Amino acid sequence: MAELVDALALGAMQNFAERVKKITGGQHSYLAEVKIDGLSLSLVFRNHRFLYAATRGNGEIGENVTDNVLAIQSLKNLRRQKFPVKNFELRGEVYLTQKNFQILNQKIQDAQTVELFSNPRNLASGSLRQLNAKITEKRNLSLGFSEKFPNYALAFKFTEKMVETRIRNIFPTVGRTGKITYNATLDKVFLDGSMIGAATLHNADYIQKLDIRLGDMVMIKKAGNVIPKIVK
Fold it and tell me: Mutual orientation of helices 120-128 and 98-111 as an angle, nearest 10°?
């Protein structure tokens, strides 16, 4: 299964355009669309029936996630269906909507059982790889299908915005399992559409690594465009 090359700056897009121009002689057009950022998945069908589901893995060998895929609400009846085409493969992305991601992370935060997921992709990926398919079923995953043409396609990723603010307090939170996580209260600052007054510090090792102290001026960003995080 192929993978799109990421472009993190305009220069990479310009280089891509030059390569395409050389290949086509200038006889081409472009199509831009929002890319779903999830976990790549292949659904394999043989003799008109669904056979198995696998992740991309290293591009040639992936992880068999058939049981968990069949726990996704929209795919529960795959085994019962007969398809008009005898042998084929569907490739797409397993993903969580931002709404469902925020709902699940809020439940995790309320329960204080595990560390919050930093973005929808990580949560979708972890959900699909669960040993217990019943957990996958509860995660409200979606499957979006798309075609990929690595020689003629590029994924442009926007740079995450960062702003500066001051740390006012650092405090620990003890979860039900006894795990301690740290958070910081900040001078409120506007970042990417919302006012931010707190951010995660994960654990003591993370605090020591960044040498974070009360009163420090720090840079924060929204990890996965959702969770405020101190980065330096």
Answer: 80
> Taking the mean position of all CA atoms in its chain, how far away is CA 132?
21
Q: List the catalytic residues.
A: 35
Angle at 113 between CA 95 and CA 184, to 5 degrees: 90
Q: Looking at residue 56, what is its pLDDT? A: 74
Cα 45 to Cα 133: distance, rounded to the nearest angstrom:
21
Contacts of 127 (CB under 8 A, 6+ apart): 68, 96, 135, 136, 139, 141
Structure tokens at 38: 């999830």
What pLDDT, in 10s, does the model give residues 170-200? 988 887 778 888 888 899 888 876 788 888 8
H-helix segments, the chain:
10-24, 66-69, 98-111, 120-128, 133-138, 204-210
Q: How much is the CA Rg of the chain, to the nearest whole Å?
A: 21
Show the CA angle centred on residue 222, arms to residues 218 and 228, nearest 5°: 60
| Mean pLDDT in residue range 13-26 | 83
Which amino acid, one-letter code, is at 181? T
Name the nearest CA neighbour of 117 among 126, 204, 53.
126
Residue 125 identity = S
Tell me the C-alpha distance between 33 and 154, whole Å.
Answer: 11
The residue type at 80? R
Distance CA 29, CA 152 (A): 11
pLDDT in tens, 50-92: 999 888 766 667 788 888 888 888 888 888 899 999 999 888 8
